[in-house]
Amino acid sequence: MQTKLERTPDVCCLAFVIQSRFFWYNATKRHHCIMTETQTQHWGNVPEAWTRRHLLGLEGLSAEEITLILDQAERFHAILMQGDRKVPLLAGKTCVCLFFENSTRTKISFVLAARRLGADVVDFSTATSSLGKGETIIDTAKNIEAMQVDAVIIRHSCPGTAKLLAENLQSHVFNAGDGPHEHPTQALLDIMTIRQRFGRVAGLTVALVGDIAHSRTARSNIWGLKTLGAKVILCGPSTLVSKNWEKLGVEVSYSLDNILDRVDVFNLLRIQFERQVVRPFPSTREYAHLYGMDSVRLAKAKPDVLIIAPGPINRGLEVTPDVADGRQSAILEQVTNGVAVRMATLWLGMRKT
Ligand code: NCD
Question: What pTM was estimated for this model as a whole?
Answer without folding.
Answer: 0.87
